[in-house]
Amino acid sequence: MSQRADICSSSGLPLVDKKSTAFPCPECGYSIGRSEQCRVQAVEYVCPECGFVGP
What we know:
Oligomer: single chain
Helix content: under 10%
Strand content: 15-25%
Distance between the termini: 21 Å
Structural class: mainly beta
Number of helices: 1
């Protein structure tokens, strides 16, 4: 698995607040970063490694 993401995979914002998160891609394990705003709004993300699309 890659290093923990430090930017949101959807918006490109830095993951600095407590409610942001990073988790492994369900398909390949690449680290996906999600800001609080993108998580709450269910903004889609695309894994840059394998192309998996998630909510």
